[in-house]
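ok here's the first one, seq then struct tokens
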Amino acid sequence: MLDRAFAKIPALSVEKQDFKIPVVDSIIQGNKTQIRNMAQIADIARRNAADIGKYLTKELAAPIGTEGQVLVIGAKVNPNVLAEKIKKYFEMYVICKECHKPDTHVQGIERGYMTIVCEACGAKYTVKNYL
């Protein structure tokens, strides 16, 4: 009977759609580093590109500006370091600590802390503000 029951159950999809942190497309020109896909990273994070830039300013201790869709860092930065900093940003400020999904948004900033709310599971937690 169990074999018949299992035969009637529809096959589950083995393929799983996991969230992937975007690869940083950067290039070093002179004494500056450009992140060419900053708009794509900001769209995936569902955050403002300027806010991610402020985070990178603090993490890299370098001035940051924008030229159209490109984020310009006023220092030479190794692409591996950039990738690590973006990954750290996603882990701290985008991916939910409860359900590990990227469906979060910033609800508010109060006393140096940001309140992040997950739209998938409803979790609410605070993290230190980078602004």
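and now the second one, same deal
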Amino acid sequence: MAGTFKFELVSPERIVMSVDADQVRLPGSDGDFTVLAGHSPVIANLRPGTVDVMVQGVTKRVFLKSGFADVQPDVLTVLAKDATDIAELTGARLASEIEMAELAFKDAKHDEDRRMAYEAVMQLKLLQGVKAA
């Protein structure tokens, strides 16, 4: 067994999660990646998507709109623009989040902003489909 490491997910308003994790899967801007204890140091941009945090065999899921990950061998810190526990995303709230992401896409002035907004729309619609099933 690889052991655990400290995982902290922080948004501007609060500490969303602070746990000793077995592993964390992150939506990197260059593709998803998984962090285990002893991971090499890395700083990565995060795109909109789901963060899967495994703690003692139980997976907790959080949706984030964007952020940065600071990976060290014994700690992973995610600084997120906005993060929401997926269990809290009701149908109405998901619809509202999709609407806001679509507006951000329409209003985006730069390619990177447009890409991030588009990714948020797609990931939220995917969650909406999963929740509806």
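notes on #2: Residues 89-132 form one domain. The chain is about 30% helix and 45% strand.
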